[in-house]
Design a protein that fits this description.
Layout: H1 3-13, E1 19-22, H2 27-36, H3 43-54, E2 63-68, H4 70-73, H5 83-89, E3 93-97, E4 102-104, E5 112-114, H6 120-129, E6 134-141, H7 150-169, E7 173-180, H8 188-208, E8 217-218, H9 235-249, E9 256-259, H10 266-280, E10 287-292, H11 294-304, H12 311-330, H13 335-339
Parallel strand pairs: 1-2, 1-10, 2-3, 3-6, 6-7, 7-8, 9-10
Antiparallel strand pairs: 4-5
Length: 348
């Protein structure tokens, strides 16, 4: 294991106030989003959309790494240039999603276990040869009546840790993503309790599997009330609850925490990250960054809708959202940045 290289890559992934772009939607997920906007659900449409993303001018100003899907890492631009080369040439580190999805957990109704450990060592070696320098694995934890169970938390934590150890063996930085889902009517306090328990369990397993914490990135949820909870706390309250939870559960050795957006509206995801950095940045042992999918991509996707004539406008929207999140890392994001639109967004 090349420990120093892992540590250098992990630090680079959260350096210079940048963050990660999650463009690792599986084919079914991508097709579902396309269907809502009337975009053809074809290999070529997915390729064209991903080319739009990887060729966005200036994207590397705010994006340090891009998480790809198996289909995407094998695709090319129209001119034959591989997406991996296009990303690397833009100064962005290529990464890859390696889990095979969350499946129903036997004996535990309403809970999931993420699969994909079988054959992972060989797949990681192949992705490394293709140019990937980090990988991602997502576990999902649902909150509800009587759940999550200890069994679901422990099984998912162990899988995350085994994946992370295999990544580091292969020379890839593991992005460890335990996501406590927003679905449900649970309170902010309940989310905080579950998130802390999940993170403590995950790090216990990472220690057990001898994962080098300095050579990984944590990708957690923010501490949020459930989507159908009657009480929806303000941005600052979410920031306080999230940072309090992380300070209790995440070792200082971890170089960076890159939040998932989890379905939050784009502006709210930026505002909440901004509040954390405004209020706590100077006192935290790790960088607070972003690893957003929809919260960066959705405005661009809605503009593009499969129309080649809209590529430039869609790229401007993508660039704008990425810049907003870089500003949020600095504690400099404001709603005015979005109210002013893309044209008033300053190029940092």
């Amino acid at each position: 294991m090349k420990t120093q290289e892992l540590m250098d890559t992990a630090r680079a992934m959260v350096a210079d106030d940048k963050g990660l772009l999650a463009m690792d939607e599986s084919t079914p997920t991508c097709d579902k989003r396309f269907a809502k906007l009337g975009i053809p659900r074809t290999v070529e449409a997915r390729r064209a959309y991903r080319e739009l993303i990887v060729t966005t001018p200036g994207l590397g100003e705010s994006i340090s790494g891009a998480i790809l899907y198996d289909e995407t890492i094998r695709q090319q631009k129209k001119d034959g240039t591989s997406f991996v080369k296009a990303i690397t040439d833009a100064g962005i580190i290529p990464g890859i999603k390696v889990d095979t999805g969350a499946k129903d957990m036997a004996g535990h109704p309403g809970e999931k276990i993420t699969e994909g450990l079988d054959g992972l060592r060989d797949r990681l070696a192949e992705y490394s040869r293709m140019g990937a320098r980090f990988a991602k694995w997502r576990a999902v934890i649902a909150v509800g009546e009587g759940i999550p169970s200890r069994a679901a938390i422990e099984a998912n934590a162990q899988a995350l840790a085994r994946y992370a150890a295999l990544c580091q063996e292969a020379g890839l930085v593991p992005v460890v993503e335990p996501e406590v889902l927003m679905d449900g009517e649970h309170t902010l306090e309940r989310c905080g309790e579950v998130t802390e328990e999940v993170l403590r369990t995950v790090f216990n397993q990472l220690y057990t599997q001898r994962v080098t914490l300095e050579g990984m990135i944590l990708k957690p949820n923010m501490v949020l009330p459930g989507l159908t909870c009657p009480k929806q706390e303000a941005v600052d309250e979410v920031a306080d609850a999230t940072v309090r939870c992380l300070l209790r559960a995440v070792p200082a050795a971890v170089p960076g925490i890159a939040f998932l957006s989890g379905g939050q509206p784009s502006e709210l995801a930026s505002a909440r990250l901004n509040a954390m950095n405004v209020r706590f940045r100077s006192r935290l042992p790790w960088a607070l960054a972003f690893s957003y999918a929809r919260a960066i991509q959705q405005p661009a996707l809605e503009i593009w809708r499969g129309d080649a004539a809209q590529v430039l406008a869609a790229q401007q929207a993508l660039y704008h959202r990425a810049q907003c999140n870089r500003a949020a890392r600095r504690g400099e994001y404001s709603a005015a940045m979005d109210a002013g639109g893309v044209n008033q967004q300053k190029r940092a």
